[in-house]
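Cross-posted from the bioinformatics board.
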Amino acid sequence: MITRRGLMLVLSSPSGAGKTSISRRLLEQEDDLSLSISVTTRPRRPGEVHGRDYLFVDATEFQLMVNRGELLEHAKVFGNYYGTPRGPVEEALASGQDVLFDIDWQGTQQLEANASRDLVSVFILPPSTRELERRLRSRAQDSDEVVAQRMAKAADEISHYPEYQYILLNDDMTASVDRVRAILHAERIKRERLVGLPDFVRGLQDGSGD
Amino acid sequence: MITRRGLMLVLSSPSGAGKTSISRRLLEQEDDLSLSISVTTRPRRPGEVHGRDYLFVDATEFQLMVNRGELLEHAKVFGNYYGTPRGPVEEALASGQDVLFDIDWQGTQQLEANASRDLVSVFILPPSTRELERRLRSRAQDSDEVVAQRMAKAADEISHYPEYQYILLNDDMTASVDRVRAILHAERIKRERLVGLPDFVRGLQDGSGD
């Protein structure tokens, strides 16, 4: 074993491209990977657990976290604040654990600015416009107008694909999960992440590592 | 499907670390991957086939290939010349096929200088000095002196690990082959290799891709 630093795996996609399903299966299948828990000012919904689904804080506390630099990224969505606490992520990475982020392109840009060394970013694309529309429609009984708005939003989100390192065409869920796992397994043995490598090689060269 | 450019997968290791076995299994298990055929001035041995094992040429022809810039890398080993013809590699990459290179750190440095965009480099390490010595001994009934020379050469080769992108500790052959396949599958969907991506995304955004 060579000691390694963990990585931050970011999955982004327009809604309807399958990101949430891929994330869930990935967490089931992979050890050493956990989902980043966001902090938010939005009210807790029935069934949600503080510390599991979110860290629920009030607006004052959120602002304090921002001011103290305790958030790796944050954004306002529909009047509520959301952010990623730095502490738990740093702890995980330092102990060789990987962290999964289900965030949009704005969050990814902030992570890129604050933690690019540890970042592995994947953008998930739907296989076709028709399939994207089918998925957006099947979600609920929405009016054509609402679906059209979502399609326009998806087209806008898709325009941010050039900011990502890997591009995954999700035309088959099982294959897509395998592909993200391949990215994870490959990135884990990138030389820069193997912090124990110089010691290990010294042991190999002088025979002291046996 | 998004059209992609092929990649050059380089595996290097000190002898005895398992590179040749990993390469052979990889070629068996992976479509769209073929071994680069080297050109050499060394005499053909019984059973070797021109165009399959090597391209056998004389010293004059080899020098002409060097002068014309037809080799991606070349080196002199024990009085014979070896090199990688550029043409077949370029053709493979342009048609979305990957090429495997079983070369040392000197060849890798030249590929890095001539084709870094397409290069994916993996350095394979033995799990321990003891295991490396065991593997070097089991190869033949060599004297202690010969084994000691090989161990010294291996230590020297290992010192080049910082020139590689991925580091693979080969303590289990099946796991190692899986790990190299993960690298291959991940690198294939790196954004820069997906040359058909801008067209594909345009089709998604305006609905013309269906």
